[in-house]
Amino acid sequence: QKEVEQNSGPLSVPEGAIASLNCTYSDRGSQSFFWYRQYSGKSPELIMSIYSNGDKEDGRFTAQLNKASQYVSLLIRDSQPSDSATYLCAGGARVTGGGNKLTFGTGTQLKVEL
Amino acid sequence: GAVVSQHPSRVICKSGTSVKIECRSLDFQATTMFWYRQFPKKSLMLMATSNEGSKATYEQGVEKDKFLINHASLTLSTLTVTSAHPEDSSFYICSAVSGSYSDTQYFGPGTRLTVL
After folding, report:
1. Can you tell me the distance from the alpha carbon of A73 to that of B40, in angstroms, rounded to the nearest whole number?
2. Does A107 contact B43 at a Cβ distance shorter than 8 Å?
3. DSSP-based three-state secondary structure for A57
């Protein structure tokens, strides 16, 4: 069974600190990985996608992928209270017609405290 | 960015009735649409993948006769929950992809279904 594992948290960090979110996956067929942010009662919004081993930076966010260890992480620098949300890690496998079938982890709840 | 809408945003129905949920891509043509379900405090679970003009591909354990998916055009997919029961109460979310080579999924705002 294809699984994506995340620590459910909550992960509490003070404002301005670095938040580190981790994810492991079991399906070596996953070709792409995504981090989504989901506020309570809302649908997910894409933060980062990563396809190759190494780091990918976008503003305050850095995604890291290690395919040998089947490990994906997301670092959030200078955390803000507005970053408080549930962060979902997803592994993707391409489908005919475009897009990826996403397997989501259970999400990590992040709380950024003043 | 691209916009995906869902209608209705909330629906409450009696057990045994059918409910149709619409998913529309407002400013792009969606070659592929996905339907997810999310129970409280749980993650999103993919229910099915639909391509315009084709039958939907359902994930293991999802009853195709209960969850009818129609992707009649490049901008509209519908999910009909037939003979709904309280255990079908959930948050249903669609997503859409623009183009065969795109990896970006644009999620709709979701539909909260409550079956009494």
Report:
1. 24
2. yes
3. strand
Is the pLDDT reported for residue B102 higher than 80? Answer: no
- Measured between alpha carbons, how far apart are the two ends of chain B, in Å? 37
pLDDT band for position A42 (cuts 50, 70, 90): very high
Give the integer Cα–Cα distance in Å for A106 and A88: 7
CA A110/CA A8 separation, integer angstroms: 9
Q: Which of B32, B42, B110 sits opposite A99 (nearest CB)?
A: B32
Mean pLDDT of A35-64: 95
Phi first, then psi, for residue A63 (nearest 5°) are -100, 145
Rounded CA separation A39/B63 (Å)? 29
Choosing among B103, B107, B113, which should be mutated to test the A contact, i.e. which has the most A CBs within 10 A? B103
> How far is the C-alpha of A88 from the C-alpha of A105, rounded, in Å?
6
Contact status of A43 with chain B (Cβ, < 8 Å)? yes
Instruction: Report the C-alpha gap between B108 and B31 in whole angstroms.
Output: 15
Nearest CA in chain A to B90: A41
